[in-house]
User: What shape does this take?
Amino acid sequence: GQNIDQPTEMTATEGAIVQINCTYQTSGFNGLFWYQQHAGEAPTFLSYNVLDGLEEKGRFSSFLSRSKGYSYLLLKELQMKDSASYLCAALDSNYQLIWGAGTKLIIKP
Amino acid sequence: GAVVSQHPSRVICKSGTSVKIECRSLDFQATTMFWYRQFPKQSLMLMATSNEGSKATYEQGVEKDKFLINHASLTLSTLTVTSAHPEDSSFYICSARDLGTSYGTQYFGPGTRLLVL
Assistant: This one.
């Protein structure tokens, strides 16, 4: 079956760095997405990786290892507004998104 | 980035009435749109995939006669919740696939919060 695993909840301190991990098992693979969802709002697109390696975009970076079925989202210089759920989603061979349950990130002052 | 609008943002209705939700891609054409439902503190649940000019594909357990989907143009899909009941109260979110980006990134509308009394 197809499956996405990510931690349910993480806590970090303002100004610090946090890494949110995601492992996936899908029927075929056409890339890995990360979305951010603030409470009560719809998800917003953060990043897309299809090749191995690290993609940096400002304070956020996303990493992919296809051989390990693994990705992570790295958030630097954490701000209180980064408190949100972070959703990992893998694109399968039919170009359908398989969603993880999301990681709730709590930022403390 | 691509913009998706959704209307209404919030609706309160009586049990037994029907509610229509519109999803529009504003600056790109979307041959495929998706409808999700999200209950409080739960993950996104895909309800159906809407393809322009053809019938929607519903996920297992989603009643197609209750959740009517129409995707009549490349920029508009509608979801009608027919004979709504309190258990249909939820956050409904649409997304549109932008084929102009890598492998068609999905962009989400702001969501519609439905409360059925």
Summary: Chain A is about 0% helix and 55% strand. Residues 7 and 45 of chain A are 19 Å apart (CA to CA). The first strand of chain A starts at residue 3 and ends at 5. The two ends of chain A are 40 Å apart (CA to CA).
